[in-house]
Amino acid sequence: MTDFTDNLKPRYDGAAILEAERSASVLGIDELSKHLLSRDDFLGRQEKVLKVLRKEKLFNKDQQLNLSRPERYHLGLARAKAIRRLVRREAWDHEDYKMAEYLNDEMSPFHLHMTMFVTTIREQGSPAQNKSWMPRILDYDIIGCYAQSELGHGSNVKGLETEARWDPVAQEFEIHSPHLTASKWWNGGMGRTATHAIVVAQLLLPKSSTAQPSTTDSENPSRSHTTSEYVPYGPQTFIVQIRDKKSHQPMQGIAVGDIGPKYGYASMDNGYMLFDRVRVPKSAMLSRYAEVSDETGALIRRGHPAVVYGSLTFVRGQIIMHARHVTPFSDMNWLVLARAVTVAVRYCAVRRQFQDRDGVAPTHSRPQDEVQVLDYPTVQIRILPLLAATFALHYTGEYMYNLYHQSRRTIEEGDFGPLAALHSASSGLKSLCTTIAADGIETCRRAMGGHGFGGGSGLVGLNADYLSKPTVEGDNWMITQQVAAYLIKKTTECVQNVASATQDPTEELLKDYLRGRAQHTPPSFLAADGSIDDDALVQIFRWRAAALAYAAYQARVEEKKPWTSLMIQLHNLSHAYSYHILVSTFRTALSSSSVTSLSNPTPSVLRTCFRLFALHTLSQSASSFLLTSSISASDLQVLDAKILEVMGELRPHAVKLVDAWAVPDWLLDSALGRYDGKVYEDLFERAHRKNPLNRTTFNVDWRSEEVVLGSGDGGRQLLAKL
Amino acid sequence: MTDFTDNLKPRYDGAAILEAERSASVLGIDELSKHLLSRDDFLGRQEKVLKVLRKEKLFNKDQQLNLSRPERYHLGLARAKAIRRLVRREAWDHEDYKMAEYLNDEMSPFHLHMTMFVTTIREQGSPAQNKSWMPRILDYDIIGCYAQSELGHGSNVKGLETEARWDPVAQEFEIHSPHLTASKWWNGGMGRTATHAIVVAQLLLPKSSTAQPSTTDSENPSRSHTTSEYVPYGPQTFIVQIRDKKSHQPMQGIAVGDIGPKYGYASMDNGYMLFDRVRVPKSAMLSRYAEVSDETGALIRRGHPAVVYGSLTFVRGQIIMHARHVTPFSDMNWLVLARAVTVAVRYCAVRRQFQDRDGVAPTHSRPQDEVQVLDYPTVQIRILPLLAATFALHYTGEYMYNLYHQSRRTIEEGDFGPLAALHSASSGLKSLCTTIAADGIETCRRAMGGHGFGGGSGLVGLNADYLSKPTVEGDNWMITQQVAAYLIKKTTECVQNVASATQDPTEELLKDYLRGRAQHTPPSFLAADGSIDDDALVQIFRWRAAALAYAAYQARVEEKKPWTSLMIQLHNLSHAYSYHILVSTFRTALSSSSVTSLSNPTPSVLRTCFRLFALHTLSQSASSFLLTSSISASDLQVLDAKILEVMGELRPHAVKLVDAWAVPDWLLDSALGRYDGKVYEDLFERAHRKNPLNRTTFNVDWRSEEVVLGSGDGGRQLLAKL
């Protein structure tokens, strides 16, 4: 179809604008990309997998926003299956497979099968259970999911209501849902896909059994499922077949289905499941660490006590879950944020609106041109600190990745020492970093004005999907309590032992504070020559974190205030502590040889990012820095002016800095964020050529019930769907 | 269909919990509802219209989230037509009709027809044009839209690219789109619905014409559409038929369609439109204020100069648009926010999670019960300040409504004096209040944890739709510049004339500051007896607004800094000024007889809301208050503790306070926010009975391309849609 619109060009040529932006900065982008994304050959793998996917029509993203939610699941399942076939056809390894999921960019109905389902069996199943299940799992002959959360309980695992009652005569467990709120809920892949589930249920043994109840449950003696004849032993994991292999219908006594539409995750079948006294064999209970004795019917626990009583498994599970959000495992929050920032920076460079009020000609422009909106400080203050944040999150991710792998080696040698610190850092960073990214996506969207609200932004799905992150796998407001508890414990130890030296960075932070607080004056982030003192910035963040930890210690340990009354303060402490990690780690990275060896001006541009991130954070939480005497009043007075100055330094490199994140256009799926700057051409193409709604003609006469012109069914098709 | 799930009950009875909440507070809810919602008999009208709508299957909201975007437009059009039929059948007046739109809760494809389309013709059309068009419009024989924004220009009306070139020989205008970016874009109802459009285009007259070019355009001499033979006269409005009445196909030379899916507004056909030298008669130009002369071919302007040169019309238009967001016209931001807060308060009261860490029994609970999450300060700090904000926004809305009607009378008598103040207040409040509401909806959602991400929250559509508000009808970051410009002008006047008395509240604010600043010490919001001093709170907000206005005056007028470099500062000034209006107006309302005459404890509970709103705002922007010496350092130290205290006072009334907003369950469409507290029953019903995805059985075997079990089409149906 051709028409008169074919010959029209936009008034300003976006391609020329981005070209000018790119040639005005001498940053070496290939080198910077490699520096940022070399782990596991990310860039090479991205290119290789992208080449395959973009040839497959099924992975075309054009019509995704026009599909209904049931269709989105259909498509999600079709793609999940197709990726399995591609894995075989292309001989992809596991990293390639993960890259395909990343580029496909939607939650796969198979996602839990190859993550929580397989991991739980591997870690908690006995050797015999592993031998029996693994081949079927790895061949996808069965599809698994992980059924922990319930309608009534998400965060509180001890509160789970599903019961697994041991019948010593039949040698079976009876899985049962005593209340409606016992329904499993939210579990990914369970709604329509899975044939099997790991079911987390409260183990109940008949009273005659001789083992002691678990310590965790003795704190909780009046659970409703405790009948006089049974004793609760806390949550255990069971592998249960939930659907018939052939008919794919639910097994007898099981009600299971999809919970319905959500904010995002349209392609994923998050499920519900209730059990009506479902019998499973003894072998269903994963028994690496605990098993019901054949002889006595008692619970036999084996292994290290920390493992046996579940707390270690729980903490390790949490660390792995949180690490996913803050390290280069799978959900790299900085790459997610980088997508939003890429779109915003490119579009705001191409977009021009209004001439300068004082008649000053804009950069790279003819005098009559309107101003690039990226040149407005009101746009910069929203986007550029987030651009800086992508690097802050990245360097901390790399740091945590290394910490995780070091600690894992130590732990596997039987030393559980590093666990608490790792748990605290990963929980705090999960909370802070997913909040920064989730809020950042929406901030970028709004900074793009009207077109930011359109589907051509490419952020509709990203935004909706990512909004789950601040809640899932540890609510961002809840898990900070664990960080604060750790810091209060550490402070208590340090207070009792201020003088002695330490290797632990958190103890060092706290002791520096305890030793220095009597005669403290806040350092200035301005050096004598007016330049920014990067180390002083780090000191300011360290001091705030330590001062808030000490205040929490005083309130809780010395003044014995109720925990609940301190919760907001503890949340703020956790964020302050996590911000200190982000700032310190970024500062350290700047001095590392991997940064200093980059060609000019990359190291100094990264330094500008560091400064903007730190100064902007200072400004956002200024009163918290002031109240802890971390920053001086005179520094605060010049803060906003310094931020403007630093943004001015970063601005010329903005387009190239987002280029460095190497997000392919195919993944961005954004008219506004196209690499080539053809924003308006693409927006128009989507509307004029690709919008299915424009293929229907409607009847707008209100006297008729018919909606489509000439359909003659009086809207009956539509009514039937309601 | 019955099954074993029918007999299951939730572990905690939500209905009993909300009942206990309601009986624990003695607030008189009916009285408070009437106090809040008496204008135009809101409550009676709501009941009347709701009764009709809920009987019509077409308005059932059950399946909305399961429809595709094209289906959502189909449904939106069917509903828009049905509402017209109901208006006739039920003899509804215009207020009833608006109530039906409010309860239907989606943007109607007819929305622009009865707002911008009809208003523009009424205000800018000549008597003859009105006579000719109005009957057809009011009968909906033609459906209109308003085509101002373009692909390349939204905020900047002067930058619009569509041209209307006068042909003196044919006595016709030629409407033409010279670039792709001239495409009309975003215009509601234009995509598939409208037959006619008001087209805003740059008027071009042949050079021989004798009238002077408009002053606005002389600032902008090199517009691309200025050819040597034509002179630009700035934007004018034209009424253009865009679709054939019978076939509903675009008229010759017009490319028009829907722009495709967006964040929200699925039911609305936001459109694009390009013109290929389309000829329209002379009568197409709306000619109340300007007309091309039959004799000379020159532009004749008539009426008051402010009207003639468009600025007045523009400003008035802006005021009306902004007032919609901040007064009881149509989009009452406090009722939108109240919906989110209603859902969050009720659900967080019903939801219990974790036992208290110190073993303290929760309120209204048995010792073994888990804590209601609304009792956690980390939940309160997110929801209760927003509950308080609904009242702040409401009282300011009422104040602005009265101010608007007073000023309108004055203006209609020919005195344009009040216009600037009204424009400034409504722009500033539009920016601040829609930001508070948009962010507030998401904050409420996140405060609800996992279930907040589900469709049962009832916030999916509300959130997506409302996210447009910070951008549309004046971007929230852009329109604040106008507020700041007004305040700088006012400050300049006041500085030159500090001593004289004034009746103008903004001048009073500024003069109080100018007189007092030499020997100012910030007042304490704590009275001598430790209670909160409400008037001191107002003073603190007044002082900050004035101090920032003065600082902006110094920077711009005295130091002559470039406007662009000040933009962030000016944005902050606008918000500080608007916050002062919210706080002052709320404080004044508390002393009004309409509040003091309410039965106890309502006046004091509203006072608690005022305090929470003010203190929480102080805490959120503490450094801005500190840097302007509006608040003392010692007050800042106790601020967080005071907020906790005030939240504790408000907590027992929270459920009843949201009840007072009287949002019907039918409108909320939320399992979590049901009036009766049956949260879990409703969530389960939606999943188990109402989810269409659960009626399909899928083929999960990855070796097969088929998606639906036994469909046998190898996913071809699905592929065809991609």
Please bin the fraction of helical residues of chain A. Answer: 40-55%
What would CATH call the homologous superfamily of the largest domain in chain A? Butyryl-CoA Dehydrogenase, subunit A, domain 3
Main sheet makeup of chain A? 6 strands, mixed
The overall pLDDT average of chain A reads 91
- Give the overall shape of chain A: globular
Could you characterize what this model shows?
With 722 residues, chain A is α+β, with helices and mostly antiparallel strands. The first copy, chain A, has 27 helices and eleven strands. In chain A, the strands form three sheets. In chain A, strands 1, 2, 3, 5, 6 and 9 form a six-stranded mixed sheet that branches. A three-stranded antiparallel sheet of chain A has the order 4-8-7, with no helix packed on it. In chain A, strands 10-11 form a two-stranded antiparallel ribbon. In chain A, strand 10 and strand 11 form a beta hairpin. In chain A, helix 16 crosses helix 19. Mean pLDDT of chain A is 91; it is low at 210-226. The interface between A and B is large, with 160 and 160 residues.
Provide a concise account of the structure shown.
Chain A has helices spanning 14-24, 29-36, 42-53, 69-90, 94-104, 113-124, 127-138, 215-218, 305-308, 311-326, 333-350, 377-412, 419-447, 449-452, 460-466, 480-495, 505-516, 534-558, 567-591, 593-596, 602-620, 622-627, 633-650, 654-660, 665-668, 679-688, 716-721; strands spanning 144-147, 163-167, 172-176, 184-187, 196-206, 230-241, 254-258, 271-275, 278-281, 290-292, 299-301. By secondary structure, chain A is an alpha+beta fold. Mean pLDDT of chain A is 91; it is low at 210-226.
